[in-house]
Amino acid sequence: MSAIYKVNKAEFMTSGTKPSHYPPTELPEIAFGGASNVGKSSLINSLVGRTKLVKTSKTPGHTQTINFFNINDAMVFVDLPGYGFAKVPLSVKAAWGPMIEGYLAGRPTLRAIVCVMDLRRGVRDDDMMLIESAPLFGIQPILVFTKADKYGKNAAQQRRREIAKGLNCPPGDLLLYSSTKGEGGEALWDRIRQVTGV
User: In 3D, which of 105, 104, 63 has the Cα closest to residue 81?
Assistant: First the structure.
């Protein structure tokens, strides 16, 4: 039965750029990745029912470290640096790839990565790289498209079908999400709980 998972505890744990900075691997982890301007921070905040757990910024590229959040002492949400549109030095951008790849490859408790994309823009090259790399690391990709409220209901479903056709997958594999309206939370929590067993 679908239901919004009740979050009683959502706390920042630590942030870092290399394995020695990361917390012990005791709880199942769910990573969140996506371009710098797709509303990833807003999605995480709305998903856990908080407004300021993850810092949001009007400047793309605000997140430059891997950030860990304790959710109900049952799982860990991991916010990865955004890619694509970040206005940060090239040297910083160049370091993100190895940092993120090292994290994805080296966390035995990582269960899935929520690939966050903008419904209006669809799947871009960087998104596709992230989606295709997930199975190589033994991680399940969960495809979520934000800004669904920018479309009417029928138009959003049509857009989902178009994207699914391009990915050669069932439309139901793609989740629509609106942080402003809080829509899509139940379906995303269902996926997260399936992979974490929580």
Answer: 63
